[in-house]
Amino acid sequence: MAIRRRPSVFIVMSLTAACLAGVVRGEGPLSLDEIASLRDKKQNPGQILRVAKERGRSFAIDDDVRKRLRELGFTPPAIAVLAKVKEMEPPKEMEPPKAEVAAGVVAPAENDPETDRIDKIVAQSVAQAGVLLTASECGQGRVYGGPGVPAQFAADARQIGTQLTATFPKAFIAGIDKRAVNVLIVATRSEYSKLLDAVSQAGEANGVRYGNQEGASLQELGAGKPAVYVQGLTTICLEGTPPEKSRRALAHAMGYHALRHVSRGRCGDALAGGFGNVTEVMIHKTPGSTVTGGYSDRELAGDAAWPQLVRQRFAENRIRDIGTTLAGTFAGMQMPQYAEAWSLTTLLCMAPDKFATAIADMRGGAEPTQAVISAYGVDEKAIVAEWQRRAAAP
Q1: Separation of alpha carbons 303 and 288, rounded Å
Q2: What is the pTM of this model?
Q3: Does a structural domain hold residue 338?
C-alpha cells in the first residue's frame, strides 16, 4: 500500500520564504496598489504584513484605506498591525537614461518649442488633408503615404536611417527628433492640392505663414512641382514625376530636415542641402536633388555630372575657400553651387565624429566656417587642398 507523506515543514517554509523573498526584493515602501497586486497573486495578509515590516508602507491609514484593506481580506487586527508599520515616502522616479554624448556634441534639447510646433502642424495637416495618410516611422524621420504610394518609399527611408546610424556618432543620431523630419507623399495632383491647403491652414493655426519672400503661397509654389519644403516637412506628389525623382526627393528631404533640426537651423542652406544629397547618394549612388529659395524642387540649367562640375570649378580657380560655399542660400544657388555644397559636405562626412562636433558647435552659435575649421583642427587652406585633391579623383 502506498504511503502518503505530508509535505515536510522544511519544504513548506522554504517555499514560503522564496515567495516572500520575491516580494521583499521590491524597491521602496509597500504601496496600496502593490498590496492589491500581491493579494491577486494569492499572498495572504500575514505574508504581506511581514513584507510591510521589512519595507515600510507608502500610504496613510485613513477610513478609505481601511475600507479598501477590508475588501482585500485584511481583518481589523491585521489593519491595526499595518497601521503601526512606519510610513515612508515613496521612492522618486528614476530619470530616463540620457543619450550618450560625445565630446563637443550637444544632446537634443528637451521640449523644443519649434519641434513641438512642427509636430502639431504635421498632425493637423494629416487630419485635414482629406486623404488617408498612413504613417511609418523610418530611421530618423516619419513618412506618411497616401493611397497608391508604393512601399518602396518607406523602405528607402529605413535604409537611410540604418546607414546614418551606422555612420555617425550615437549622440549625433540621438539629436535628431523624428517629429522634425517629416515627408508626406500623395499619388495624385488633386490629392496634392488638398494636402498643400491643409499644410497652409495648419501652419497659420500655429502662427506660421508658408511661402516665399515674393509672397507666393504653397499652392503656387507646388503648382506642377514634384515637392515642396517647409520647416520640418516636405510634401511630395507622384503624379507627373518619374518614380526615381520622387524617391530622390524623399532621400534628400530626410537628410536636409535632419541636419537643419540637429543644428537648430544654424548650419545654413548649403550644408543642409549638401547633407540631403549625401543621404540621396546612400540610395541612388549619385546626387541630383535641388531646392529653390521658395523651398520647392526645381530644374536647373546644366546636365553635367556633379563631380565634373566641381572639378571644372577648381580648374577655373572659382573655389578658393569653404566659406563662400557654406554661405550659399537656396535663393541664389545654381547648379554649380549645389554640386559644390554636396562635394564639400561629402568630404566633411568622411570624418563623422568631426562633422558631428562641427554641427554641435554651429548649434551652440558658432559661425559655420569657423565651426568646421575648429572641429577638423586644420586651417581653411588645408581643407580646400584636400577637397581639391579628392574632387580631382575619378
Answers
A1: 10
A2: 0.71
A3: yes
